[in-house]
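#dry-run=false #mode=assembly
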Amino acid sequence: MGGGAKLSDKIKISLENTPVEFPQNAVVACQGVKGAYSQLACEKLFTNPNIIYVNTFDAVFNAVDKGMCGNGILPLENSLCGSVAEVYDLMKKHHFYIVRSVKMKINHALLANHGVISPQIKEIYSHEQALGQCSEFIKKLKNVKIINCVNTASAARAVSESKRNDAAAIANPVCAHLYDLSVISNSIQNNDNNYTRFICISKELQIYPQSNKISLMFTVPHKPGALYGFLEKFASLGVNLTKLESRPISGSDFEFMFYVEMDTSVSSNGIKELMDELENTYETFVFLGNYKEV
Amino acid sequence: MVIVLKENPNPQQVNRLKNWLAEMNIDIHTIVGTQSTVLGLVGDTSGVDIELIRALDIVEDVKRIQEPFKRANRKFHPLDTVITIGDTKIGGGNFTLMAGPCSVESREQILSIARDVAANGGHILRGGAFKPRTSPYAFQGLRGLGIELLIEARKETGLKIVTEIMDISQLELFNDVDIIQVGARNMQNFELLKELGKSRKPILLKRGLSSTIQELLMSAEYIMAGGNENVILCERGIRTFETATRNTLDLSCVPVLKETSHLPVVIDPSHAVGVARYVYSMSLAAAAAGSDGLIIEVHNDPAHAMCDGAQSITPEAFGGLASKLSELLPVVGKSIGKTQN
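#status=ok
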């Protein structure tokens, strides 16, 4: 987060400078191609986004960091498959803030070129998360080869461009229309309660009114009660933690980076002061933002 | 740096990319080809994140250009540049014959040679009005009057005209000239090159007698940096230890220039060898090597020419050469006198 001003001062400045309304138009980086869930999430957040498609999550962070886009959209976790590990790992590498999050109901369909019927399909293309979310459906298909793609919509596009009659993609039904494919089976996810949370990131710390979620990233020393000591401070303020994730720090001997999300805001009693205290106490402590989920 | 875009990229996303690059003070040069669009970036691109650009969905490939010449570089512009002057095309499969006397001597002389050049298959009439001579006592050219006579010859024969400029102060006199020649001795007159960069007239840029190929391309870059993309490169012999010929014709520059640059390459065998009887062989060799045209000294009375008579061939010899070239050129995939592309 850089030296200089205290975190609480940065938060105060941000509260004064952030507009009251979340913008309607923005240049936004999304991973994938047209029809990707990131696009659908982006359109839920912005009425008029100018979307720049990139092919990696890393590029979404980079596009925001290098000023190509004001915002970026990244999937964080899925209700069936858990966290998107790659995104969590990339958070360590980049400077960014979360300015909003969005929960999207995910509906997957099996898509193929027109005229193709289910028994003809020998290969299925999709993103690993989508493949995982539809594992039971896939298991029922016999002798089918699974091919990982960077994104569900790119998988649909690839199947369409290949013109093959033995390949199918798992993607949102929107992609059938976009890439001229037919829906062979709809709602093929293991559980209909399939949600993915996306975050919208920005290079600047922006805290819009009604922000009620805070995300943090930190490390604690390897000693008894270290993590408890960290979390206890929130318990004493009566803050509800909604997520705790740990990811190994590559190159270290089982050192971990922790990520927490909680239902609170910087305007709540004691939070700003606690942020300063944590920043001064822990070697790594990153305030990732205070935002609202829509 | 060059960015190769995928086929039919989303225009909104291309604009966003261009705006972002422009915000970093990078000059963008867009070349729309038949198959792909290339964005050539000029300026300090060290801060551009090549991996980020490569990750964009609209981008096919990104390459850094190591060479100091950018706009003249073929990586910037994969297809041959074709320069069009009325019905005459130079480059891209067209083989252009430029011929005429070393200098415009009189009305009768230039009109007579112009008729002969036109009758024998030439496309462009050359003739010096301002002459860069080694000796201050040698004939310096008819100057403004010479240009007027060339224009008169163009009117009568339909040939386009090319003539040499020696100084920025003469620029106004060249308003009605089709191609402005920058001579070997002026190849690194950077102020003159910059001034010509502001013009949109085709420039025939001759290689300096002791300049490297890269120096020639850097001079072309000077003109192109000003926005004038219409540059024709010309090899006219370089100075070596050999004395049997006036200079040594560096024909190996043709494949080198064709590989590294998209600009048309024209060969001047006359100044290179300095001996009329060697012009024929070297002209055929130049065509076979892949050049886009020749600029040859033709005089109706070489023995009494006021300048460079020894290297001038007669109109008949020029006609013979033109007819031989029309047999040879199809072999190397070019055609003489025809317009393609």
